[in-house]
Amino acid sequence: STATAGVPAGKLPSPFVLTLGTLPYRFFPLCLLAFVAATVSTGRDFGPMRDAVVKSERETSTVEEDSGDAAPDMGAMEPAPQTPLRAVNALVPFGTIIGATLGGMILDGRKAVKASGHIGRVTVMQALAKGDSVLALLWGSTLGCAAALSLLLSQKILDLDTAMGTVVEGMKEVIEPIIVLALAWALGGIIQATGTASFIAAALTSGGLPAWALPASTSILSYVISFATGSSFGTMGILFPLIGPLAWELGGGDQRLLTHCFGCVLGGSLFGNVFSPIADTTILTQLATRVPLTDHVRTAGPYAALVGGLCLLLGDLPVGLKLWGPLPAVGLI
User: Fold this and answer.
1) DSSP secondary-structure letter at 6?
2) 10 Å Cβ neighbour count for 170?
3) pLDDT tens readout for residues 57-81
4) Which of 80, 117, 124 minimizes the C-alpha distance to 102?
5) Mean pLDDT of the chain
6) pLDDT of 242-263, one tens digit each?
7) CB neighbours of 142 closer than 8 A, spacing ≥ 6?
8) How far apart are CA 222 and CA 184, in angstroms?
């Protein structure tokens, strides 16, 4: 692949084994998970997040005092008071989406593999590799919506007019995120068309970058690009063809350095997913929590920046200098 271009054949393990080897070097997601667990268990926040929590608690208390026993305004997408809340009404639609999506990818992938002239049994992994995920997601979401409507109508929780009105309200909720995502994809296409990867490679090599600094530089690039594009996969697509050959060249064929740099790409590319205003995960978080997008970015940003900085100082730099290994780095962070 382009990520390992220039590496002699037989010098690296299989892509699957190489990917597994990057797990200890994915400092950012590993340490962010630990940070979230520590924050939840201690109940301590800081910075804008703490201010937002205090403000939310104060406003909730004021609303409860002013409203008394009056029913709160639940919004168009929330269940009406006295609506029976049953787990099956959530589990079945979500299960349908997951099952239909995976099944659709396998069926479409098998068709594509057969069309390519393959003879013999088609494995699940081969089918998933060739399946059209976008088409499968459309199938899954359509069937999931149909399952949800069937459950609500059969239990007489909603009548047909109310159910269809709710579907329309749900579509209204996602129009703005769809526009933002379309613009994010356009930005990613512009970055690719303008040769961003080549420019970054030239800037790094012309400055005489030492091999030990490449992992930290890779993480910083992953942070910046993922925040700017809002896409972890887009960031990986930009950086893998750049970092792979560069790490092999600067490291003199050091597989450990290559694995470390690949881990930096895979882990650092998730930085933008935490709080980039154009990331799909950020937009979904806004939809789920009904928190304004700017508030989410403002409150989550310091947390991501803190964890990212610690990963650089205690992870990528000392591991690159071979002061300690990846697992002690994770423990220190």
Assistant:
1) T
2) 13
3) 777 666 555 555 444 444 555 677 7
4) 124
5) 82
6) 888 888 888 888 889 999 999 9
7) none
8) 16
